[in-house]
């Protein structure tokens, strides 16, 4: 997707081997790149210490033809350590919200609501708490002699 973007499909393969698509999530670390594809008014990043990461989720697999996300959110990361920053009132009354409000046709959810939406989608395709919190599969190399 690019140096500032990451995209991933989230799905579940059930015990019968059926693939159940959940959602496609894209994370964009370059707000100017994000702005190229979305209507916006002017925004100013000069006084902001952190870097905004915009997350979008859509319920269809990635394709050039289908581009409509169903949910958006954002988080702010330290420019040097890349750790999440704790910004008071991030989604209600912050300079970061003012920047995100410049995207006139988009509505941004607080990250906890975005994650709740993800979890609801996963549950709807059969993913349980046990599955979500399960161990990572281990792989063993099979050597044929």
Structure explained in plain terms:
With 145 residues, the chain is α+β, with helices and mostly antiparallel strands. The chain is built from four helices and five strands; from the N terminus they run ββαββαβαα. It has a five-stranded mixed sheet with strand order 1-2-3-4-5, sandwiched between helices. Strand 4, helix 2 (95-101) and strand 5 (108-109) form a beta-alpha-beta unit.
List the helices and strands and how they pair.
Layout: E1 5-13, E2 19-28, H1 31-36, E3 50-58, E4 71-78, H2 95-101, E5 108-109, H3 111-124, H4 129-132
Percent of residues in helices comes to 10-25%
Overall body shape: elongated
Number of helices: 4
- Straight-line N-to-C gap: 40 Å
The major pleated sheet works out as:
5 strands, mixed
Proportion of residues in extended strands? 25-35%
Task: Give the class from helix and strand content and strand pairing.
Answer: alpha+beta
Low-pLDDT runs of 5+ residues are none
Computed Rg: 18 Å
Reading the helices and strands in chain order gives: EEHEEHEHH
Biggest β-sheet: strands ordered side by side in the sheet: 1-2-3-4-5
Mean pLDDT: 90
Q: List how many beta strands DSSP finds.
A: 5
């Amino acid at each position: 997707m690019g140096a500032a973007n990451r995209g991933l499909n989230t799905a579940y393969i059930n015990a019968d081997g059926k693939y159940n698509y959940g959602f496609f999530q894209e994370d964009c670390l370059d707000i100017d790149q994000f702005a190229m594809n979305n209507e916006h008014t002017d925004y100013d990043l000069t006084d902001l210490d952190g870097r905004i990461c915009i997350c979008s989720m859509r319920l269809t697999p990635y394709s050039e033809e289908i581009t409509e996300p169903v949910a958006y959110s954002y988080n702010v990361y330290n420019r040097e350590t890349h750790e999440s920053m704790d910004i008071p009132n991030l989604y209600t009354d912050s300079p970061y919200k003012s920047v995100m409000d410049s995207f006139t046709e988009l509505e941004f959810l607080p990250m906890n609501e975005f994650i709740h939406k993800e979890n609801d989608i996963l549950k709807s395709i059969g993913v349980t708490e046990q599955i979500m919190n399960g161990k990572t599969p281990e792989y063993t190399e099979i050597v044929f002699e």
